[in-house]
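Field log, afternoon session.

UNIT: design team B
ACTIVITY: writing a sequence onto a fixed backbone
BACKBONE:
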């Protein structure tokens, strides 16, 4: 891939998806400049962004992840409110034991 900022951060692109690996997913969460580059690439190339942040307890505020297509947050201990994730198409919250309310959410598909 010619985008050097993606080196070591992605699994690859399919026809319509940009798949970030665990390193890239955490970088997307933590680094606003990286996130902006990814969002621009996704928009310019009409891709769907897939993020995998499973089994990591560093994330508590999930709002920066709200514009992803597919989001894996399984096995998180610190997440309790996912209402801001209403734009996420496929959301994996398996074994997230602190989530107590998704009533304001319009999540399309929980996987």
């Amino acid at each position: 891939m010619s985008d050097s900022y993606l080196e070591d951060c992605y699994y690859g692109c399919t026809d319509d998806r940009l798949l970030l690996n665990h390193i890239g997913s955490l970088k997307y969460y933590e680094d606003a400049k990286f996130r902006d580059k990814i969002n621009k690439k996704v928009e310019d190339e009409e891709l769907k962004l897939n993020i995998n942040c499973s089994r990591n307890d560093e994330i508590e505020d999930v709002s920066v992840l709200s514009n992803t297509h597919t989001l894996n947050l399984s096995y998180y201990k610190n997440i309790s409110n996912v209402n801001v994730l209403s734009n996420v198409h496929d959301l994996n919250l398996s074994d997230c034991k602190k989530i107590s309310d998704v009533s304001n959410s319009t999540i399309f598909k929980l996987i």
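LOG NOTE: The mean pLDDT is 80.
NEXT ACTIVITY: expression trials, pending approval
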